[in-house]
C-alpha cells in the first residue's frame, strides 16, 4: 500500500492507508483534524477509524501496565472526542477499549489474588458476563470460557448464575460469528497488551459484520406485501431491506432526505454508483432494491404525512442511540417518527450496538449539529442569504417514546431495555473518562 | 415493406406496357421477382416508377383490377400468390417492426422509391405513421400495427411509473404545449393555461383571480352567434376554456367555486337582455367577485389574523401563502416585533419568495427546509398556515407538508401546544370531504423531483451557460414558485454526472411520486381565520352553506 495520502481525498480510506506508515502522534493528529473538518463523518467510518487508531496506539505502547495503557487510551480518546463531540461513536469505541483493558487487568488480578476477593471486585463485571452470552464478538466470552475450563468459581452473583447455562447455547444462536475456539488459558503473567489488541480486532470485526448481523433479523420483521417507509441512504437499512427482499416482496417508500443526504439517497434508490465515497467506498457494491424486484417509491420529505396512512412499518437508520432509548438521527427523522406515531405505524430503528452511547442527554440541543446553509439556500440566492437566517440542522433528537423497536446486532429490543445493553458494554468508570 | 405489394401488380401491369427491365413478366414468376426485389433496391426503384399509373388508385383494388385486365388464366394464380404474399408480408412487417421499431428505418428502399412515384400516397403514408389516419385499407393496417405495439409498450412503462395507490389521480398527461387546443379557446386563456402549468400563476387565490380575469376577457370579446341566446351559448364557450385550463393543471377548489358562481350568473341572465348590457353585467360580476371574495376578504383576514400576533412571537409558516404574507407584513407595519420562521419544501420552494418579501420588508426571517421542522417549531409560539381548501369535515387541504408542520406544532415535546392558525378565504371552502391525502390530491410531474439544486450549483460554476437560468425567478404577484430551471439541453449534458435519477423512467421498479397537497386532520387546526370571522374548523360546512346560499 503506497501511503500517498496526499493524492487521496482526505477521509477514512486515506487515513487507514497512512496509519501504518505514519508515526502514532501524526496519526492521532490526522484523525483529530479529519474529525474536526468533518471529513470522516459517518458513524461507522468514525468508529472504524477510532478502532484502528487505538489498535496502533496500544501496539505502539511499550508497556503492558494496564494503568498506563488506560491513561494512554484516555488521553487519545479525550482528544478525539474534543475534536468532534457529536460523533458519539468515537467515545463509544474508546470506552469499549478502556473496558477491555480493565477486564484484562482484573483477570490478571483475579489470577493473582485470593478467590475471596474476587467477589467484591468482579461486581461490576457480572453484567458483562451476562452480556457475553448474547454478544458473541465480545472477547469476554473467550475469557469466561477459559475461566470455566480452569474450573474457577466465578459465580459471584445471581446474574452469573443464570448466565452460565445460556453460554453453552450461545455459539449456536450466533452462527457466522466467531465462536470460542481453542484459546490458550490465561496464565498469570500473560500479556495484557496482546489480549487488548485481540479485543480491538474483534471490535473491528464487529464493525465489519454488524450490518449483516442486523440484516439477519430482517425476515422476522418484514412480511410479504408490506409497505415500508424509510429515510436517508443508511447502509444498515438498505442491507436489512435487501435481506428481506431476497425472500419477500414488498414496497419501499423512500423519503429523499433533502438537502443533506438526497444525492446519496437518489443513488441508493436508483442503483447508480455511490455518490458518497466515504460512506460506501469500502462496502462491497450492493444491488439496489429495485434489482430484486422491489418497488421503490421516492418521495420528497414533505409527502411523508400524506403517505403514512398506507405505510405498515417505518424503518429508520440512526446516527447514534442514547442510553435513554432516544436517538440522534438525520434531520427529518423526528417528524417522520412522529407522523408514524400519529398513524399508529410501528417505528423500527436498526442500529449496531456500537452506536449505542452511554451518554444521557440532558440538553438535547447540544447533540444537534448544524450544517452547510448553502445546501438549503444556494448561493445563487445570495441576496436572500444576506438578509435571512438560514438553518440546516444535520440531526434530530428522536425521543424514545416515538420508537417502538430497536434492532441491533444482538436482536430486537424495546427502547426501555437499552440502558441494560449500555451497562453491559461500558463500564461505569469509563462513562465519563 | 409495403413496396413488394405495390410492385406485384405494378410489375405485372407494366410488363405488357413494354418495360425493358422486366423481361420475366410471366405470371408464374411473381414470387421470385418479389424476392429479388426485396433483396435489391435498385431493381425496386427501377420498377416502381413504372408502377406509377397503377399506384395512385387504392392498392388492393388496383392490383385486382390489373390482374383481371391482363390474362384471365394467370389471374387466379396471381391472386393466390398475392394472398400468400400478403400473409408473408404481414408477417415480415410484424417481425421487422418489432425489431427495428421505426417504420421508416426498416424500409429504406420504400422511403426512397416512393416519393417520386406517388407523392400523394406518400404524404398520406407519412401522415398515417404520425397521426394514425388509415389511408388505403392495406397500408393503414400496416402502420396501424406498427404504431400500436410501441404505444402498448409505452403504456406499460408509464403504468409502471405510476404509484399504484395514486393510480386514480394520474388521469391524462398534462398539456405541454398549446398545440391541439380547441380553436374556441381564447388567447388569454391559452396563455393562462401555460402559466398555470408552469406554476407561474400558483396558489389557490392567484389562480382563481387569474382565471376570472381571463374569463372576463373571453366575455368581453364574445359575440352571441345568431339564433342563440347569450345565457345559453356563453356557458358552452366557457366550458371549452375550462376544459383547456383543466388539461394544463387540474382546477383548484377556488377556481371551481368561482366558475360555478359565474355560470350561475350567466344562466340567470334574462335572454331578452341586450348583449352589451349582459356582458357589462357579467364583467361587473367578475370584478365584484374578485373584490369581494378575494381582495377585500384578504384584507379582512390579514387584519384579523395580524391581531393574533404579539410582540415577541415566533411565527412558523410553511411554504408561501399570499394571505400569510399579507398578514405578517401588516403586523410588521403595525409595529409589532416578532420573528418569522419559514419552512420550505422541495420541489417548488415557494417559501423562498415569501422569505424574500418579508426580508425586504425588514422582518426577522429564519429559513429552513422540511427536515428542520422540529427545530423550527421548538421555539415557535404560533403557526400560521395558508390553505388550498378547507373541506367540509374541517380538514385543511393544503400544500404537501402542511400536515407535518401542523402535527409538529401539536406534538411538541413538553406538552405545550403551539396554536395553529389557518388563514383562508371562504371561496376556498368546499363541500367535499376528505379523510386522507390519497383519495383527493393532485399529481405533479415527477420529473420536477429529478433536478435538484446542488448539482446545478456545482456544475453551474464550471458552466456559466447552464448557470444563468437558475437565478431567474419568475415573480408574479409574489406567488410565483421558483420553478426549478430544468432546461432540456443542460439537463442532458450533465445527465450522467449529476443526478442519478435522470434515468428513472428507464429504471424498472423505481417510481417517483410528486403529490401537491396533503390533508391536515381537523384536530391540528385551532382556528380558521376567514373574512366572516375566526372559526373552529368544524364551522367550515356551515359557513360554506351560508356563503353559497347568499
TrEMBL record, chain A:
Q: A Gene Ontology CC term for this entry?
A: eukaryotic translation initiation factor 2B complex
One Pfam entry for this protein is: IF-2B
In terms of InterPro entries, this protein maps to: eIF2B_beta_subunit, IF-2B-related, IF_2B-like_C, NagB/RpiA_transferase-like
- On whether Cytoplasm is a keyword of this UniProt record, the answer is yes
Where are stretches of biased composition, namely Polar residues? 170-180
Name the UniProt key words of this record, in alphabetical order. Answer: Cytoplasm, Initiation factor, Protein biosynthesis
> Where found?
Cytoplasm, Cytosol
Chain positions covered by the region annotation Disordered: 111-136, 164-191
Q: Which GO terms describe its molecular function?
A: guanyl-nucleotide exchange factor activity; translation initiation factor activity
Q: Which family does it belong to?
A: Belongs to the eIF-2B alpha/beta/delta subunits family.
What quaternary structure, including any partners, is listed in this protein's UniProt entry? Component of the translation initiation factor 2B (eIF2B) complex which is a heterodecamer of two sets of five different subunits: alpha, beta, gamma, delta and epsilon. Subunits alpha, beta and delta comprise a regulatory subcomplex and subunits epsilon and gamma comprise a catalytic subcomplex. Within the complex, the hexameric regulatory complex resides at the center, with the two heterodimeric catalytic subcomplexes bound on opposite sides.
What name does UniProt use for this protein? Translation initiation factor eIF2B subunit beta
**Which organism is the protein's source?**
Penicillium atrosanguineum
The organism's taxonomy opens as:
Eukaryota, Fungi, Dikarya, Ascomycota, Pezizomycotina
UniProtKB/TrEMBL annotation, chain B:
GO cellular-component term (any): cytosol
**What ranges does the record list as Basic and acidic residues composition bias?**
34-48, 76-98
What superkingdom does the record give?
Answer: Eukaryota
Record-linked Pfam families: IF-2B (PF01008)
Main location group: cytoplasm
Q: Where is the composition biased (Low complexity)?
A: 7-32, 124-133, 489-502
The yes or no answer to whether the keyword Transmembrane helix is present is no
Molecular function terms in GO for this entry?
Answer: translation initiation factor activity
Q: Where is this region: Disordered?
A: 1-159, 459-503
Assigned keywords, A-Z: Cytoplasm, Initiation factor, Protein biosynthesis
InterPro entries under this entry? IF-2B-related, IF_2B-like_C, NagB/RpiA_transferase-like
Task: List, as start-end ranges, the regions of compositional bias called Gly residues.
Answer: 101-112
Record's subcellular location: Cytoplasm, Cytosol
Protein family membership = Belongs to the eIF-2B alpha/beta/delta subunits family.
Complex formation: Component of the translation initiation factor 2B (eIF2B) complex which is a heterodecamer of two sets of five different subunits: alpha, beta, gamma, delta and epsilon. Subunits alpha, beta and delta comprise a regulatory subcomplex and subunits epsilon and gamma comprise a catalytic subcomplex. Within the complex, the hexameric regulatory complex resides at the center, with the two heterodimeric catalytic subcomplexes bound on opposite sides.
**This protein's name:** Translation initiation factor eIF2B subunit delta
Specify the species.
Answer: Penicillium atrosanguineum
Q: Tell me the organism's taxonomic lineage.
A: Eukaryota, Fungi, Dikarya, Ascomycota, Pezizomycotina
